[in-house]
Amino acid sequence: MFKKFLISVLLLPAVAIAQPVIVDRKILCNRTDLVFAELANSDFKEIPLWVGEGQQKTKTVLVVNQKTRTWTLIQFNETVACLLSAGEDYQLVKTQ
User: Fold this and answer.
1) What is the maximum alpha-carbon separation in the chain?
2) Residue ranges of the domains in the chain?
3) What is the pTM of this model?
4) What is the pLDDT along the chain (96 residues), one digit of tens a residue?
């Protein structure tokens, strides 16, 4: 009983602090066909590694170049694609 009480007291501040944070940053968007053509044909030569379907007919895709280790995370629909994040170097995490 004491152990449950102690855990709840220790975790209470974490729950109180866990408020949403709004990040204000610019996101680049363009026509979907142009974005994917640029990533596939430019110096990046990134191809899809993972695709997930989201709400309201959107998809999110992670495109990578396995040789240069660059990656780009894109959310898109039929008409507009937005670059959410990009970087260099990644690792694939082995799952069960």
Assistant:
1) 62
2) 25-96
3) 0.73
4) 555 554 555 565 655 566 788 888 899 999 999 999 988 888 889 999 999 998 888 999 999 999 999 999 999 999 999 999 999 998 888 877
Cα 26 to Cα 53: distance, rounded to the nearest angstrom: 23
Mapping DSSP onto H, E and C, the string for the chain reads CHHHHHHHHHHHHHHHHCCCCCCCCCCEEEEHHHHHHHHHHCCCCCEEEEEEECCCCCEEEEEEECCCCEEEEEEECCCEEEEEEEEECCCCCCCC
Strand, coil or helix: 90: coil
